């Protein structure tokens, strides 16, 4: 039986990102992926939001995606575009990039890090005990790991077999999405009809003056509503796609040669718990919803970055396994909010006159400055706030990517996070902090910064004297040279001090 510290079921964007995060910290991780080839077929998701680009920037790989995608103001709510160009981030935009390219770049990153991938198989059964999980693969192979993470999609076998409830809302709408060839030229763009929204776009395009300009040739990406809600019953067919196009457009434009066809609905479900013993869930295995707003892939990648460093510390023995409970307590509310806003968007996109009136009123409100910024920050992930208690407005929020001046020169905050190690950033008197018991885990950086600290939507905040930044880029402690609460925060998030002996420390306690 082959053993690894962590097994990830599923090698999509969430699974790949999690594997890279764990490998960065020296954890032995393997992915089990049913696809035989690393070649990705299909482009279901179409881009990255601002916070996801920041997350990739924190690991030094954002440029790989930016160099292949199309930068644009793609954030929106219920078909209303939201300009986020004035939000305080180095990436005040979305990135148009099909999922097949996103996965290819992440797979290349995983290959660089020598991540083990078992291809052509899937986790078919497993049992967990007090110290690990025994797994059987569909090809007959057996594996064992300390932890199993299900990143195996909305129909997650891992979630079902571990017995985690997946409750929510049933489907009320059904649509087909596909990559196809067409003998006739369809009208590019998004169109509203009495049956609902349908759209056509070629896979190859450019952004010119903020507008999408499609190439003249190549495969067409089609989205079209179905007249009847079919849910997940059976695989979508070319005949069904043709019928749906004729119903919506009066013609199927000679549709043929599909690369893939898929059905999606507005079903919204979320796992009741993201963890059961030594089995965890991330990405679509933990939450599914309508693709409106393009938040699914982004939420999954950010799940991976929240979980990765925590799981690494537990596996390495740095932190107790109760640290993993904070994965659920932080990420479950984020996805619940995504489900809520997708439900609202689907409701506002219904093809009737009354709903159209409501949608136009909401669109008018979103042209106002404060609602635009608030919804733009929500949809792009910039306003995520983990509940870490009362205190400075930065506590529990993403750390701004400040330009810092250190003894060794200028550096950005996100550059310091490339190795996925936390940072204690001292912006006051050099040498004011001594964290020797944690220095093997936490970077101590004395620096200066001159400027206004800003948060999305909430405006300027008072610049703190010191900030403790977690590996996922969120602020775990804010203070000054008095150090009040710092030891407690270090112990809570990064384990007991290296010289810990029971009774030797008066401040700080395990989770």
UniProtKB/TrEMBL annotation:
All copies of domain FAD-binding, residue ranges: 5-342
Gene3D superfamilies with a match to the protein in the record: 3.30.70.2450, 3.40.30.120, FAD/NAD(P)-binding domain
Keywords: FAD, Flavoprotein, Plasmid
GO molecular function terms noted in the UniProt entry: FAD binding; oxidoreductase activity, acting on paired donors, with incorporation or reduction of molecular oxygen, NAD(P)H as one donor, and incorporation of one atom of oxygen
One Pfam family in the UniProt entry: FAD_binding_3
Keyword Flavoprotein in record: yes
Cofactors named for this entry: FAD
InterPro entries in alphabetical order: FAD-bd, FAD/NAD-bd_sf, RIFMO-like
Name of this protein: Oxidoreductase
Gene source species: Rhizobium meliloti (strain 1021) (Ensifer meliloti)
């Amino acid at each position: 039986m082959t053993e690894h510290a962590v097994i990830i079921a599923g090698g999509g964007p969430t699974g790949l990102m999690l594997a890279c995060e764990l490998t960065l910290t020296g954890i032995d991780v393997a992915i089990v992926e049913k696809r035989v080839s690393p070649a990705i077929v299909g482009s279901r998701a179409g881009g990255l939001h601002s916070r996801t680009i920041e997350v990739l920037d924190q690991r030094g790989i954002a440029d790989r995606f930016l160099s292949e995608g199309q930068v644009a103001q793609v954030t929106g709510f219920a078909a209303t575009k939201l300009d986020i160009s004035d939000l305080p981030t180095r990436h005040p935009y979305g990135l148009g990039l099909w999922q097949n390219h996103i996965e290819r770049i992440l797979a290349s990153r995983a290959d660089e890090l020598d991540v083990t991938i078992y291809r052509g198989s899937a986790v078919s059964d497993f049992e967990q005990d007090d110290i690990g999980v025994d797994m059987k693969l569909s090809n007959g192979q057996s594996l064992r790991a300390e932890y199993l993470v299900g990143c195996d999609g909305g129909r997650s076998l891992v979630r079902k077999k571990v017995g985690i409830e997946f409750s929510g809302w049933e489907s009320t709408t059904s649509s087909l999405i596909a990559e196809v060839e067409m003998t006739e030229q369809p009208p590019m763009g998004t169109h509203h009809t009495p049956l609902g929204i349908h759209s056509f776009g070629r896979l190859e395009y450019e952004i010119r003056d903020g507008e999408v300009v499609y190439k003249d040739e190549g495969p067409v990406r089609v989205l079209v509503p179905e007249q009847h809600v079919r849910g997940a019953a059976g695989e979508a067919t070319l005949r069904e796609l043709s019928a749906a196009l004729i119903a919506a457009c009066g013609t199927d434009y000679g549709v043929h040669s599909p690369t893939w066809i898929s059905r999606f609905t507005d079903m919204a479900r979320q796992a009741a718990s993201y963890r059961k013993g030594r089995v965890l869930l991330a990405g679509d295995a933990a939450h599914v919803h309508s693709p409106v707003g393009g938040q699914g892939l982004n939420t999954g990648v950010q799940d991976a970055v929240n979980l990765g460093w925590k799981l690494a510390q537990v596996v390495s023995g740095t932190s107790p396994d109760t640290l993993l409970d904070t994965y659920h307590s932080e990420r479950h509310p984020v996805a619940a909010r995504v489900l809520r806003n997708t439900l609202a968007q689907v409701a506002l996109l219904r093809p009737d006159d009354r709903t159209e009136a409501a949608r136009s009123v909401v669109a008018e409100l979103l042209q106002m400055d404060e609602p635009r910024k608030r919804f733009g920050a929500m949809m792009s992930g910039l306003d995520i706030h983990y509940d870490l208690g009362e205190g400075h407005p930065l506590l529990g929020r993403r750390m701004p990517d400040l330009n810092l001046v250190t003894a060794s020169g200028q550096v950005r905050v996100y550059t310091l996070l490339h190795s996925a190690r936390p940072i204690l950033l001292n912006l006051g008197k050099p040498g004011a902090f001594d964290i020797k018991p944690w220095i093997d885990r936490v970077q101590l950086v004395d620096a200066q910064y001159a400027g206004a600290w800003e948060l999305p939507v909430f405006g300027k905040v008072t610049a703190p004297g010191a900030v403790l930044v977690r590996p996922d880029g969120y602020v775990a402690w804010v203070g000054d040279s008095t150090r009040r609460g710092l030891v407690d925060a270090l112990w809570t998030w990064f384990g007991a001090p290296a010289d810990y002996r029971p009774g030797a420390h008066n401040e700080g306690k395990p989770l």
